Every structure is written in structure tokens, then in C-alpha cells.
Input
Amino acid sequence: YGTDAGPRLANVYFIAAIILCVVAFPMFLFGFYKTRERMMSTDAPPSLKHNLKLLVKNKPLLLIVISGILGSAKMAYTYTGGLYFAKYVLADVFFLGMRGEQLYTIITMAAVPGGLVASLMVPWFAQRFGKRNTYIYSHIVGSLMMFVLFFVGIANKSSLYTDPTTLIVGLISLVIIGIPMGFGNIITYAMIGDTVEYLELKTGERAEGICFAMQTFINKIGMAVGAFIGVLAYYMADVTPNNPGALDPKGKDIMWIMLVLLGAISLVGTAIPLFFYKFNEKNQKAAIDIIMERRKLAEETGKTVQQIIAEETTDRVSEILTKK
Output
């Protein structure tokens, strides 16, 4: 579309979106009306109010959720902000065979090697150091690398973040930052699974639905905040659309701070709540033993698990959390 691509591409995207919606919406309706459950439950589903009460009681899960929210900005550079940075800050940079906007591919893909290795190493690290510690310290390492990248960029500010040192350190940093991302994508699911046992130990109810829904909530918040930071950086930097060479040094500084410094702070923020997370692997195994013991007792006596919990003379949650 050439230099006047903006308005014409906007129309193309708009028409494509309408076509996709027109085609996809009837498919959703078909699935909604024609899908039938194979297993019909006779139990009434728990109310939203009841689920929220359970959520409040699950303190380890709340810490994971807070951690996820504080870490929402750590991947902002992979969303629209990274694209804007490549297009308007790296407009005249030729690096690894790519120039300007094309460098967004490197920005987003650089984290893949570190993330892949970390994903494969999760079982070993979790067994040796524990899920919580692996998550915390991998994010601290990631934050340190991002702070290094930020200050290297500031030290070479005269080049407006386009000098070889900043670019090479940036590439290395993004690869290393992929490590906490790889750990986090898997470990949070496993830790949320552990909190299901915590909740059952405390209340007698498992409530997997509301617990694992929090992972989706964390993911949605992360995508929303990541995209918002990119758009905010775009407007704060006073970008002139489709004119990469027009961004002034102040605007480039704003882009750097919003994407790199906020990302580093967010990585630290992700780790902080989990320092208060005390439900480790040993606690989880002890919780399962107590849960199975209660279920067996409930089957033998005809009582509910909640009745058995009410009759216990000791706080079993505090009992296992204080175990060494």
C-alpha cells in the first residue's frame, strides 16, 4: 500500500474483522445450542458468592494472584509496545539482517530459547529447590538482567539505544528473561493445583474451578496491562504515526523507560508476594494425607467432611504449616 498505507490498511482490517465475526458467531451459536453434557450432575452448582468466600479463604492462591498482577508489565515489550519500539526507536538500525519494524520479530522470539530450556528443566528445579523458590529466584535473575539492560541503555543514551553494546546486551538479556517466563508458565499451574489441596484441607471443599480460573484471570490481566503499557508509551512519547524518523530523543527515552524499566520492576514485583507463600511440597503431601484420612473417616461414620473438620480439636492447617 506504500506510504499511504494507514487509512487503506485500516479499512482492510475492519472488513476482515467483520467477515471473521460473521463467520465465527454462528459457529459459537451452534456449539452453544447443540452441545450436550454426557454426564448430568444432580448437585446444584455453587453460587458466585460461595465461590468468592472460598477464594478469600485460600490465602496461598491469593498470593499467586497478587504475584501475577504485579508481574503484568514484565512482558509488555512483547505486545504493541515492542512493535512501536522497533518501528520508531530502531527505525534506522540494521541488526541480524533485519531493520526497524522487522526487529520486532527478534524482540518477541529472543525469549523462546530461554523459555524452552526452563520449561524442560522445571521438574529438576522443582524437585531440587521447590516450586516456590524456583519461581522467586528465576524472576529475580530476570529482573537483574533487565535492570542491567536498562542502565546499559542509559549509559549509552547518546546513541538513543541503537549502539552495538545496547543491542547485544539487549539480545542476551531477552534470552535470559525467557527463563523466568518458561518457569512461570508451568509452575504457577502446579502451585495453583497445590492450593486446591490447601483449600480442601481448610474447608473440606476442593473448588478446582474457582482456583484454576485464577490462572485465566492472571493471563487476561497480563495481556491487558501489557497492551495498555505499549499504547500508553506510544501516546506519552508523542509518536507521529507512520513516520519513524520523527520520534525525538525524549520520546525514545519514554519508550525505553516504559518497556524496560517497568518490566524490570514488574519482575521484582512478581517475586515479592511469594516470599510469604508457605505452603511447600512437604506441606502439600501432609495435607493430602489428612484429606484422605478425613474421607475415609467420613465413609466409615456416614458424616460429612465438614462435620469431621468441625469436630477436630486442633487446627490441622496450622499444624502442617509449622512442620519443618
About this structure: The chain is about 75% helix and 0% strand. The longest strand covers residues 94-95. The chain has a mean pLDDT of 87. The CA atoms of residues 61 and 192 lie 6 Å apart.
